[in-house]
Amino acid sequence: MNQTQFYAPTRVIFGADTEKQIGDIIANYGYKKVLIHYGGQSALRSGLIDHVKQSLISKKIDFVELGGVVPNPVLSLVYQGITLAKTEKVDFILAIGGGSVIDSAKAIGYGAANEQDVWDYYSTSALPQACLPIGTILTIAAAGSEMSNSSVITNEAGNLKRGCGSDLSRPLFSIMDPVLTLTLPDYQTAAGCVDIMMHTMERYFNHGDNLELTDAISESLLRVVKKNALLLAKEPQNLAARGEVMWASSLSHNGLTGFGTDGGDFATHKIEHELSGMFDVTHGAGLAVVWPNWARYVFKERLERFVQFAVNVMDVEPCADAEETALKGIHAMENFYHALKMPTNLKELGLNPTEAELQEMAEKCDYRPDGTIGIVKKLAVSDVYAILKCSR
Fold first, then answer.
1. Cβ distance 246 to 141 under 8 Å?
2. pLDDT computed for residue 2 by the predictor
3. How far is CA 184 from the centre of its chain?
4. Residue 68 pLDDT > 80, yes or no?
5. Alcohol dehydrogenase iron-type/glycerol dehydrogenase GldA domain: from which residue to which, for each copy (predicted)?
6. What would the mean pLDDT of 181-197 be, rounded to a whole number?
7. Using CA atoms, how far apart are residues 131 and 110, in angstroms rounded to an integer?
8. What values do phi and psi take at 138, rounded to 5?
9. How many whole angstroms separate alpha carbon 189 and alpha carbon 353?
């Protein structure tokens, strides 16, 4: 049995109009100066930012703001946020948005609380020693950053997309009102559902022992998201389905579905990071392209696991031949992606990378010191290149 820990200190405030409590919540923590961090114009047009400001003003809480976070959050804006937080003596960061905004807020929190260059925490083995406290108002269900210890930032110099994991950045609280996701484009909703499922699938496909209860939780979460993703594709205004997906987003990436495992594979995420780092594609759509091709490349290394997934998650009838069952499960996932209008190859994603670009992505992948990624099958540069080539 694997040694394991579960730590999820984030307070979740879930339900309609919960964002209206923001002034009271921050006042109860005793913070005095807030950096409001958000993305584009949608949060402004919806009136959400103004409502937050008025709530803070009513509690005599000072604030500054920084918008402009893009879907793959960039280091240059993080540096701006660090300078702003230090200059204005900010003692709390409020991230209003989805995973990109929350990830950017975490990086700003590291940079403002430490003297070391924040990029070191993403590009080397250096670990932050502190982080400004963070809270979130979630408007996109996808990344799970609202309860996780991880964040991903893109350095525009070289288009390097790298992650940092530290419990110091776990949000103190996360406000989750499914109503705030009703205006999302269908494509973004679908891509978010892919990302949610992948956070559990990365942990589910491992190469060690598994707890029966963790498997049951994981498989249930995947089935619930699959069901509600298909429902939202037909009924985008279905608030109950949006609530299910939003809660699944948080549970999928807070460590629960990896409890008792060896930590999971995460090769699909690392390969996709190079894809979105080079071409700035939507993360969930990139994952939908990479996973089936990764799965076909590695499934024989953990055949029984892929059979279990096919039967328990994708509703495949078991075949006499285990490999056939596993492959049917992978194909069923591709069909699910297509039902959500997600791509399963680079051509469908609108890309036609050159051989040199495929090789560059393979070489730039965030490998361990031994030169590999993944657990189901340890992948070297040549393996990643082969998977990317199959993805065309």
1. yes
2. 73
3. 17
4. yes
5. 9-178
6. 96
7. 5
8. -80, 130
9. 26
**Per-residue confidence (pLDDT) for residue 289, from 0 to 100:** 98
Q: What is the pLDDT of residue 1?
A: 63
Q: Where are the alpha helices (DSSP H) in the chain?
A: 22-29, 42-45, 48-58, 75-87, 99-113, 119-123, 186-204, 212-234, 239-252, 267-279, 283-298, 303-312, 322-339, 355-364, 381-390
Rounded to an integer, what distance in angstroms lies between the CA atom of residue 153 and that of residue 162? 6
- Token readout for 168 is 């110091």
CA dihedral 220, 221, 224, 228 (to 10 degrees): -170
Place of tokens 């509703």: 315
Structure tokens at 357: 């670009």
CATH of domain 186-390: 1.20.1090.10
What proportions of the chain, in percent to the nearest 5, are helix, strand and coil?
55, 10, 35
In the prediction, which pLDDT does 3 show?
76
Q: What is the pLDDT of residue 339?
A: 98
Q: What single-letter amino acid sits at 214?
A: T
**Angle, CA 103 vertex, CA 17 and CA 345 arms, to 5°:** 100
Q: Which amino acid is it at 16?
A: A
Q: What are phi and psi of 76, to 5 degrees?
A: -60, -40
Would you say domain 11-180 falls under CATH 1.10.240.10? Answer: no
Task: List the strands of the sheet with 33-38, edge to edge.
Answer: 11-14, 173-176, 134-138, 92-97, 33-38, 62-66
For residue 43, pLDDT beyond 80: no
Q: Give the mean pLDDT of 251-272.
A: 93
Kindly tell me if the per-residue pLDDT of 304 is higher than 70.
Answer: yes
Amino acid 262: pLDDT: 80
Q: What is the β-pairing status of strands 160-165 and 150-155?
A: antiparallel
Residue ranges of domains in the chain: 11-180, 186-390
Query: Would you say the CATH fold of 186-390 matches that of 11-180?
Result: no
What is the average pLDDT value for the chain, to the nearest integer?
Answer: 96
Please say whether the beta carbons of 44 and 202 come within 8 A: no
* Least-confidence region, from 1-10, 129-138, 187-196: 1-10
